[in-house]
Amino acid sequence: MVILDTPETMMRSLPAFSTLRAFLNWTDARGELLRIPDPVSVVHQMTAVHDAVLRKSGPVLQFDAPRLANGTRSPIPVVTNLFGTRERVAAGLGLTLEEIPALGEFLAALRTPAPVEGMRDALSRWPMLRAALSTRPRITKRGPVQEVVTEGDAVDMTALPVQTPWPGDAGPLITWPVVITRPHGSAADAVARYNWGVYRAQVLGRDRLIMRWLAHRGGAAHARTWARENEPMPVAIALGADPATLLAAALPLPETVSEMTFSGVLRGARTHLVPARTVPLLVPAEAEMVIEGWIHPRDTAPEGPFGDHTGYYNAVEPFPVMRVSAVTHRRDPIYLSTYTGRPPDEPSIIGEVFNELALPVIRQQIPEVRDLWLPPAGCSYRIAVVSIDKRYPGQARRVMMALWGMLAQFSYTKMVIVVDDDIDPRNWDDIAWALATRMDPARDVMVLDRTPMDYLDFASPLEGLAGKLGLDATTKLGTETTRDWGQVMALAPQDQDFAAALLARHLPGLGH
Ligand SMILES: Cc1cc2nc3c(=O)[nH]c(=O)nc-3n(C[C@H](O)[C@H](O)[C@H](O)COP(=O)(O)O)c2cc1C
Predict the structure, then answer these.
(1) Residues pairing with 196 in the sheet
(2) 460 Cα to the center of ligand 1, angstroms
(3) Full set of structural domains in the chain with CATH
């Protein structure tokens, strides 16, 4: 377990980024910010530039002359590809990539606090508690996000440089919103009850958006509490929040942990909030922009189609409409955007780092798991490769069933491949070799029928119900086989060292 000290010294090895601007300055100083003075249209062109740069693990992009759909130039620059590399995702969490596993251990500890074992153990946990307490949000009257306030009829969402990412998209789509909600019956300052989630929002007109929170998300759960009372629900959307806020909102945190408090832990500094102008909610004071408004019960509109992380367009589905009551922003705001599409896209890169964070939690539940990879190309969750420390017959099947049955995040994983711990589950060549040499297609395949699946999977025969495939590519032992199992070939280390030394003299170009 990672023992936290004070928020300043805990875990973070990078400076605190309390604003998006601070993070952009940091990336700029590292040569990872490209400013583009050329006019680039928010309709499709921005996606094309972003996609090409993301595929090369390129820099953050700042489009200084975005062109709107009507051909006019927007004075608001657009930033994309913020988290286009795993290193930048880690940096957004205040860490280097090597420090990610330690944060994963901390998250695992948050989920299942182990029983206190003696006074020494209890004392060692105090610093963690102190850190959590000192990251309570700071509430003030004023903040930069309200330097300019537009209300009522003056609101015009269509003037913002909102991308229409793909040719088949229904219209402009806000892609990096941090949606702020609280349940009915909570007080506006009861920040521990707030939810922050990233849910895309289609711009319908000057003052109307569609809020696409899937039914199992925190925002949708809050909406049900307001609808039950037949009361309009206040909603705020922070745009261009600081990296800790963005990533805390995108992380599937345990129900008991508020994203707001957790963002403070990640940031290494308290979250700074101000009261919104027209809705009873607290909003991030240092964000670039905030959109405020109301969702009325039963007010829905058909959302989409929009290109999604599967690489296909979603079906049109009804989602709640948000009536915008105010837009507030800094004097010189920046608009943060991204696109979702066939991996790799920015969310799939964020997902890779998040999956690494989840490994200690998975190991808590299934201790024989050594490593686990969700290939981004498999839509980040539909295929899993897991390596295990195999000890007994049938163990690979037990691991498959544990992943599907015990851990909600694997409900929609159609295929699980289990390999031994001498196989690198992140290396397709290793996986192919294990499948080719350790698996029998008749004996080692487990097929399940009619298990849960997300509605986005049009390949499943029934909406919401699909099959599951488990491939056991582990070494067969005990009663799993009656045959003599093959012995893995390997050269002795001293012979390999000899070869390396000899080739370093005769073939230095080989790179020994
Ligand atoms: C760029 C981006 C776009 C996303 N779009 C959506 C979306 O449209 N709808 C949705 O339900 N989740 C979306 N997500 C995923 C959720 O934000 C994520 O699962 C988050 O943990 C949900 O928080 P919650 O558990 O508090 O609801 C998106 C994530 C990212 C990073």
Answers:
(1) 180
(2) 23
(3) 20-336 (2.30.110.10), 366-480 (3.40.1670.10)
Distances in whole angstroms, Cα of residue 357 to Cα of each of 94, 145, 252: 14, 31, 11
Q: Is the pLDDT of residue 116 over 70?
A: no
* 212 pocket-lining for ligand 1 (C-beta < 6 Å): yes
Q: Provide the annotated active-site residues.
A: 308
Task: Please tell me if the CB atom of residue 347 comes closer than 6 angstroms to any atom of ligand 1.
Answer: yes
Name the strand (E) or helix (H) holding 247: helix 243-250
Rounded mean pLDDT, 43-61? 98
Ligand 1 centroid from CA 83, angstroms: 15
Least Cα distance to 253 among 111, 379, 410 occurs for 111
* CA-based nearest residue to 279, from 231, 318, 225, 244: 231
Residue 252 is predicted with a pLDDT of 80
pLDDT at 231: 98
Question: Is 419 in a helix, a strand, or coil?
Answer: strand
Report residue 194's pLDDT band, with 50, 70 and 90 as the boundaries: very high
Q: Is 251 in the pocket of ligand 1 (CB under 6 A)?
A: yes
The residue whose CA has the least distance to atom 18 of ligand 1 is 250
For ligand 1, the distance from its centroid to the CA atom of residue 351, given in whole angstroms, is 11
Atom of ligand 1 nearest to the CA of 176: 1
Instruction: Read off the pLDDT of residues 178-191 as tens digits, 9 standing for 90 and up.
Output: 999 999 999 999 99
Nearest Cα residue to 338 out of 20, 80, 67, 34: 80
Q: Does residue 309 have a pLDDT over 60?
A: yes
182: which 2 tokens? 């609280």
Site to substitute for ligand 1 among 199, 237, 338, most atoms within 8 A of C-beta? 199
91-100 mean pLDDT? 94
CA atoms of 299 and 226, how far apart (whole Å):
13
Q: Average pLDDT over the chain, rounded to whole? A: 93
Ligand 1 centroid to residue 436 C-alpha, Å: 37
> What are the percentages of helix, strand and coil residues in the chain, rounded to 5?
35, 25, 40
* Nearest-angstrom CA–CA distance, 442 and 430: 21
219 lines ligand 1 (CB under 6 A): yes
* Cα 342 to Cα 309: distance, rounded to the nearest angstrom: 5
Task: Please answer whether residues 324 and 162 qualify as being in contact, where contact means their C-beta atoms are separated by less than 8 angstroms.
Answer: no
Residue with tokens 């309009």: 232
**What confidence category does residue 106 fall into, taking pLDDT thresholds of 50, 70 and 90?**
confident
* CA distance linking residue 12 with residue 296, whole number of Å: 41
State mean pLDDT over 116-137.
59
Residues 6+ apart with CB under 8 A from 501: 512
Q: How far apart are CA 46 and CA 164, in angstroms?
A: 9
> Which residues in 84-160 belong to E strands, given as ranges?
138-139, 148-151
Rounded distance, CA 382 to CA 146, Å? 42
